[in-house]
């Protein structure tokens, strides 16, 4: 029962899906409950991945056969997942880029990590992010039909596993009071990491069965390298992490997984 309760709370925290009933009460958002729900962040990736696969497959079948069809399908599934999450990851990436000016002291950059308005650097990063994501998915679609679907599912899940390590390595820059900054404002425990790893291992197993071990391992390695790079960048420039940089890390790791999976598919 607690597993389902924590998963539903994670859906409420990380998506726009209206989870009503007891989860609308203020007492739900205690530090312990939020920490427990953080382990289900990759489980929320299953929802996003399944939605992305469904939209990509539908558009791929419904649209006329054309070299542009995979790209349009990739854009469509990206829009669908952004609507599901409220664009939290995409917005987080743009605002994190805006908070990393080279001429700003690290602490000052951390304080300004959530600017009120999107600036040129963040807007450019957002455009490049969407182009990279759509382009990589279209490239994956050039192979077996299952390749892009396996990448979408595993990419959405794994990219929500890696940000869970940020609170264990960096200081949270903001109000860490219960409910104020979400489930990742505090380091999560081993039990939550085990649950997150179980969600992720299942998605990797699906990808490996569908496309082979090289496909899954390459995606895993690339997304793991991406989170290490994000951790180093945040530590150097912000001396910590913010709620927005969690979304930025998720997006970078998602794209990295697609890139790794595409390379793995080409050498398999």
State the gist of this model.
Helix content is 71%, strand content 0%. It contains twelve helices and no strands.
> Please, how many domains?
1
Q: Give the N-to-C terminal Cα separation.
A: 42 Å
Poorly predicted tracts of residues: 108-114
Query: What is the number of helices?
Result: 12
Explain the layout of strands and helices.
Blueprint: H1 2-14, H2 31-38, H3 41-62, H4 69-85, H5 88-98, H6 106-111, H7 120-141, H8 145-158, H9 166-169, H10 190-211, H11 213-237, H12 243-267
Helix pairs in contact: 1-2, 3-4, 3-8, 3-10, 4-7, 5-7, 5-12, 7-8, 7-12, 8-10, 8-11, 8-12, 10-11, 11-12
What would you note in describing this structure?
It is built from 12 helices and no strands. Helix content is 71%, strand content 0%. It is an all-alpha fold and 268 residues long. Helix 8 (145-158) runs antiparallel to helix 12. The protein has helices spanning 2-14, 31-38, 41-62, 69-85, 88-98, 106-111, 120-141, 145-158, 166-169, 190-211, 213-237, 243-267.
